[in-house]
Amino acid sequence: MPQTSPATKDVKQKNHNVKLATILSLVFAGLGQIYNKRLLKGIIFLIIESAFLITMLNFIIHGVWGFITLGEVKGEDHSIILLIEGLVSLIVIAFAATLYVYNVIDAKRDARLLAQGESVPSVRKQIKDAYDAGFPYMMVGPGLVMLVFIVVLPLAFMISLAFTDYNLYNSPPRNLLSWVGFQNFVDLVTLSIWKKSFLNVLSWTLVWTVVATTLQIALGLFLALLVNDERVKFKRTIRTVLILPWAVPAFVTILIFSAMFNDTFGAINKDILSQFGMMIPWLTDPTWTKVALIMIQTWLGFPFVFALFTGVLQSIPRDMYEAADVDGGTRLQKFRFITFPHIMFATAPLLIMQYAQNFNNFNIIYLFNEGGPAVRGQNAGGTDILISWVYKLTFDTNNYNMAAAITIIMGLVVSIFAFYQFRKTAAYKEEGEM
């Protein structure tokens, strides 16, 4: 039986057509690998694509149709179900496209190696190489799939609703939804009822975030510096007392304060301010309600900041303060050039997260007065922030499209602010760059 000589085999491999292997892999996944004599890999790709076409093709076609049209027959087509099926179809297409592109790249890479004279590995070697290269992906893959369907899919659904006309008066299956583009965002800043509410809520959200967070940080820093002073006695007892507000669940504290600030029977008006002939409308006047909310958030937030700063102050080397004393540094100079830079370097990312957390601090706004009191001429309460307004639009008035649009704006604001601040934070830079 004639055998192929090594020289003839090398010539055949050098004549291996890279372009043909690429085209075959484009025509059908696995054909390029089979042409490259990577039989196991080629068969796996063939099985995957064949199974995908057999089981998923009809679902994908129907899902893409539903995503584009959101239904055509009232009472039969459910726009929300079609939208979800369409998003799932797009995710499946994305996974399939990724695998398909990998199939093409893999076939082209192997063809080039064969054309350069590389030998085709044995089946056992192929299995070993596939296991070694694919093991990390096998471990990460299930988690990635769960992440996509648990996190990405709901997020994509919410974003999609912002571009539809889904509200209380136009809801499936009685009515079909339609894509309206950016009309919801335009209405938010042009229609009087939405414009007034949106601007008032947005401005209060920004004021609330900056003032409440800054006050809790300032109070926490002041108390941490005070307790850390060497002349203060009973430090452990004082620290324990100052951290106690943090130990009580926040919702319990908020409900207690809500009762204490009650205009009629609250302890603050009835037992304290009444001694001075004062009765402040804490829950009926938007301005006083905002003042009360800021004070309560300062009370709730300062213990965490206090504990954070206390730990950082304990880690600052005493040698630096002794050197400053030798150079004649004042207390203010030591705070400015030693204490404050160390605190900011260690805690800036966490402080930034305090601002982001208060920007979306739903609990205190809703539990204290449900975002009230009501304000004439707008569909948001006097102390509603964006997140509490979104809650009301979703569950009280069923304006799902506007709620989704506002949520996107909230996400963009927080993301841009956090990204910019983290990039500028010294704690995220190399020490040599400081």
TrEMBL record:
ABC transmembrane type-1 domain mapped to chain residues: 202-421
Keyword tags: Cell membrane, Membrane, Sugar transport, Transmembrane, Transmembrane helix, Transport
Function: Part of the ABC transporter complex MalEFGK involved in maltose/maltodextrin import. Probably responsible for the translocation of the substrate across the membrane.
Subcellular localization(s) per the UniProt record: Cell membrane
PROSITE patterns named among the record's database cross-references: ABC_TM1
CDD domains: TM_PBP2
The keyword Zinc-finger is annotated on this UniProt entry: no
Gene Ontology biological process terms from the UniProt entry: maltodextrin transmembrane transport
UniProt-recorded name of the protein: Maltose/maltodextrin transport system permease protein
Membrane disposition: Multi-pass membrane protein
Keyword Membrane: yes
